[in-house]
Amino acid sequence: MLEQGLVIVVSAPSGAGKSTICALLEKKLPRLRCSVSFTTRPRRPGEKNGRDYFFIAPEKFKAMIRKKEFVEWARVHDHYYGTPRSFLDKTVRAGNDVALNIDVQGALSIRKLYPRAVMIFVMTPTFAELKRRLVRRRQDSGETIRRRLANARKELRYLPSYDYLVINDRLQTATREIESIINAEHHKLKNIRKPVFI
Amino acid sequence: MLEQGLVIVVSAPSGAGKSTICALLEKKLPRLRCSVSFTTRPRRPGEKNGRDYFFIAPEKFKAMIRKKEFVEWARVHDHYYGTPRSFLDKTVRAGNDVALNIDVQGALSIRKLYPRAVMIFVMTPTFAELKRRLVRRRQDSGETIRRRLANARKELRYLPSYDYLVINDRLQTATREIESIINAEHHKLKNIRKPVFI
Prior knowledge:
The structure is a homodimer of 198-residue chains.
Chain A: E1 7-11, H1 18-28, E2 32-34, E3 38-39, E4 54-55, H2 58-66, E5 70-76, E6 79-84, H3 85-93, E7 97-101, H4 104-113, E8 118-123, H5 127-136, H6 142-156, E9 164-167, H7 171-186
Parallel strand pairs in A: 1-7, 1-8, 2-7, 3-4, 8-9
Antiparallel strand pairs in A: 3-6, 5-6
């Protein structure tokens, strides 16, 4: 019934579990595709090119900016991050949903370009829990963890720009909740073609 | 996280399955209560007082109108139908959701009183299917079925006033879809108390 797929923005502080959730959603919702961002930051151990990010050189990234190949991009701590335009447009035009894991600034840009984008904010139950998760994954220094937590507080100020809040207490529950949100959005009258009953 | 429960309006043409869906939802969603309307029309075979309707005498109904005990009421083909106010208010104040099976006119009244009410329209895939279901349940004369179908066409004109459309093709699927909608609404930022993260 949808004219085209939905653009679904999932933002979450680093460590709140958004990339895991996206992978789970892709398995559960046959019509959902997760967008993979481009970045110039170095690949971390365990990350896979084309799955976590497309890791590219800064010159390549700048060329893509010039060719307007990003729907949104940002420079964060000396590294570039961008959401590719062609994948997004192709996916929604084919009637599939596209999920974007992006930060609050990127989310606001997407909302401007796609006013019907569904904006979901994922957060841990508390900051203390967020800190525990960041420590547990043994990826960041104490300094980086402090910066990520400060950043999370800043990001939360943008919560009123979002449509939905999902608390990632248990991963399975949070994923099911986002699944419900996406299913519900498919039944919104504003998202469906004028139905004709014969 | 909710300040109070949600008011959920489920409208559907006669025969589209709304009362069955409501009973199923009540079983699946522990926080949902279905409101039972009052009516002055005679009880039909198989109907149970207090489950399908509260069947009361016209004088009693009129007294309830005078005492403003209905959030909405209507007279349809010589019979009165009304949604009791106390059950609705008590339920949402206790933090539970209340589902109302009401027609489009009643739905619009509810929306005025409760602007955040969630409005769901349930329809069969086609009018032909609606007719089949009305015929199959062997409850109405040919004339009544024709009137119900004509009425369904009229009701569908109010579809743009609703938030969601659910097609009741398979009962289990339609129920699951409404479940998703209710779950999603519980995560809407506009429906939740300003979250505080510590």
